[in-house]
Design goal:
By secondary structure, this protein is α+β, with helices and mostly antiparallel strands. It is built from five helices and three strands. The chain has a single domain, classed as GIY-YIG endonuclease (3-Layer(aba) Sandwich), CATH 3.40.1440.
Length: 95
């Protein structure tokens, strides 16, 4: 089974959220539709702008904790390295 670390954004250079899940499609859908509640609903953080698959939940949680401790500029650089336009990647993972 794969596990995912992901970054959501409210817009380009907007509010960021980092999370971990074993079902990226389901989890992003929950964020987008207010099912997840909390921070992402309050600040409209719904655009999937970066994600990475890991082979274990331990690896995913470790990466999530690393990213949460990063400076914002490092998170922005991570996003822009893979997704310079900050496109919403959600539709792409549905296929």
């Amino acid at each position: 089974m794969q596990y995912f670390v992901y970054l959501l954004a409210s817009r380009k250079n907007g509010t960021l959220y980092v999370g971990v899940t074993n079902d990226l499609i389901r989890r992003v859908h929950e964020h987008r539709n207010g099912v997840a509640g909390g921070f992402t609903e309050r600040y409209a953080v719904h655009h999937l702008v970066w994600y990475e698959a890991t082979p274990s939940i331990e690896a995913a949680i470790h990466k999530e904790k690393q990213i949460k401790n990063w400076k914002r500029e490092w998170k922005v650089a991570l996003i822009e390295q893979a997704n310079p336009e900050w496109l919403d990647l959600y539709q792409g993972i549905l296929s």
